[in-house]
Amino acid sequence: MDSTLNILCIGAGYVGGPTMAVIADRCPHARVTVTDINSDRIKAWNSDNLPIYEPGLDAVVRRARGRNLFFSTDIPAGIRAADIIFVSVNTPTKTFGQGAGRASDLQYCEQTARQILACADSSKIVVEKSTFPVRTAEAIARILNSNGKGLAFQVLSNPEFLAEGSAIQDLEAPDRVLIGSEETPAGLRARRVLVDIYRAWVPADRIIESNVWSSELSKLTANAFLAQRVSSINSISAICERTDADIDEVARAVGADSRIGPKFLKAGIGFGGSCFKKDILNLVYIAESYGLMEVARYWESVVTMNEWQEARFIRNILANMFNTIAGKRIALFGFAFKADTGDTRESQAVAVAKDLLAERAHVVITDPKALEYVSTDLAGIDGVVECERDPYVAAAGAHAIALLTDWDLYRTLDYRRIFDTMAKPAYLFDGRNCLDHDALHALGFSVFPVGKRPLLNI
Ligand code: NAD
Ligand code: UGA
After folding, report:
1. 12 C-alpha vs ligand 1 centroid, how far in Å?
2. Element (H, E) at 401
3. What is the pTM assigned to this prediction?
4. Is 302 in the pocket of ligand 2 (CB under 6 A)?
5. Which of 27, 109, 240, 275 is an active site residue?
6. Ligand 2, atom 14, residue with closest C-alpha
7. What gap in Å lies between CA 67 and CA 53, rounded to an integer?
């Protein structure tokens, strides 16, 4: 690898920050600069209080920052100095105009391409790190190569597969790294530069090379397949609840078939997070725009099943608490969309909180990392909401606990102490099936798991 390789990343979020920190850590001879238009975020990346919580991230940043990892708001200077530019901006679902509610909003991507074009004074490799609809590279290349400066840009696709909460582990030992390029001599040369960066720590047989379009489509497809598994197992959880079958036993039996496998078969309140819903809806939109309506409806049903699972969870709470929760204190254990992250984007807990507030419950939210987002996520929603860092205080006086995020912390609480302080009958709705239900039942709780027989004390 060229010892003076200058790497720039535009977008210092959940992907840009950790990804570049690991590249800088593993490629000490590259100089890596991460930029963002959000100056508060950059300030936080330069402080001891990083803007995102991710196990292991602090140590990686501490090793590389100031050595060959830099965080800056000076995007033009970064562009001028860069040999290779990763684009890691957000690609939310479009909320307006054609494709609203489905298509990806590509405005940040296009702004970035235009800024690269305006500032670049030498040819560069541009890498799509964000999740983009298939054929976005064509649009980026067209913008970049419309320059009158005689510069040539190669656009590569290198989608990120990390999951929040395990980002550092996923980046340091990835199942695979996917790199797509144009299959021309210039495209293959650019592909080689990116392969060489990853080869500093990723074994060759884990680096998959392909054309750009396969790479772009593989990312959306991977997320759709993962989300589909969660919706599939959740659909079966509803059948379990009617038949006394047990969803964990079913998942174990089904997952033991190596063709299916045990991962991503954990039933619960449904998938959350910033990517699954957005990416499946984008796939739906792409299918529709090619006139493939059956394909669109098929993938859309994965999202519909997810929404139904959350609605079912609320209906279950209501039905078992005498059809009224108005004025009842309900403690929500967890607000993040999964454990080990403070991220609440598309968290099922936000939807659950809103539905409980619509029933006029008194909602008390506790979470070790996500409480700071409660006020924005529930902005404009009427009702009584409290935030409480200490789960024991949150549960004191509550009629029910709804466990919504599978933080390890919640498995090790003293539930006898909690039971003693709650209103009776004390209900526990385990939306993640992560507690010891028999032990809780023995303490006096009425326990409602997902996809298993309830254990009643009433
Ligand atoms: P994010 O919102 O955390 O970060 C995006 C950053 O880009 C923001 O800080 C924003 O200020 C910045 N930005 C937007 N426009 C900009 C511009 N013109 N110039 C400079 N900075 C700009 O998003 P994220 O979670 O990091 O996701 C980024 C992309 O990666 C998305 O396409 C997402 O689908 C994909 N992805 C996310 C994950 C994940 O776990 N979060 C995993 C894999 C892929
Ligand atoms: C997901 C993918 O796992 C990553 O590979 C991908 O890079 C990323 O999306 C992305 O494109 O952003 P992430 O959303 O961070 O990662 O988290 P996951 O671990 O996939 O969990 C997503 C949701 O599904 C969570 O709410 C989780 O609790 C839920 N889930 C997951 C289940 O309900 N059951 C399971 O068995 C697995």
Report:
1. 7
2. strand 400-403
3. 0.96
4. no
5. 275
6. 273
7. 22
Residue 1: pLDDT over 50: no
User: What is the 89 CA–ligand 1 centroid distance (Å)?
Assistant: 4
The tokens for 422 are: 């709650």
275 is catalytic: yes
Name residue 443's amino acid.
Answer: L
The predicted structure's pLDDT at residue 3? 62
Secondary structure class of 124 (helix, strand, coil) = strand
Predicted pLDDT at 147: 84
Q: Is the CB of 363 under 6 A from ligand 2?
A: no
- Ligand 1, residues at Cβ distance < 6 Å: 10-16, 36-38, 41, 75, 88-91, 108, 111-112, 130-131, 160, 162, 164, 274-275
| Mean pLDDT of all residues in 119-127 | 97
Spatial distance between the Cα atoms of 337 and 303, rounded to a whole number of angstroms: 16
pLDDT in tens, 169-186: 999 999 999 999 999 999
User: Average pLDDT, stretch 422-446?
Assistant: 98
Q: How far is CA 410 from the centre of its chain?
A: 21
Rounded to an integer, the average pLDDT of 210-225 is 97
